[in-house]
Amino acid sequence: MTAAELIRNRRTALGLSQAELAARAGTGQAFVSRVESGRTTPTLPVLQRLAAALDCDVVLDLEPHR
């Protein structure tokens, strides 16, 4: 699952609109839309703000190529 899908799924599970998530994360609704559609990739600090606004932690994992 992509970061965009994870963010969108968590937001909708919490019953938040994009505008509400944006307000909580200190960003704009248009930016949240671009992230959720995969048109932009947030920096790690912004991803952390989005996660905090979604009451989540960011967990990174590196796996070797198969």
Automatic annotation (TrEMBL):
Lineage of the species this protein comes from: Bacteria, Bacillati, Actinomycetota, Actinomycetes, Kitasatosporales
Keyword DNA-binding: yes
A Pfam family that the UniProt record links to this protein: HTH_3
Listed InterPro entries: Cro/C1-type_HTH, Lambda_DNA-bd_dom_sf, TransReg_Diox_bact_type
Domain of life: Bacteria
Organism whose genome encodes this protein: Streptacidiphilus cavernicola
Keyword DNA-binding applies: yes
Stated name of the protein: Helix-turn-helix domain-containing protein
Sequence ranges assigned to domain HTH cro/C1-type in this UniProt record: 7-62
Record key words, sorted: DNA-binding
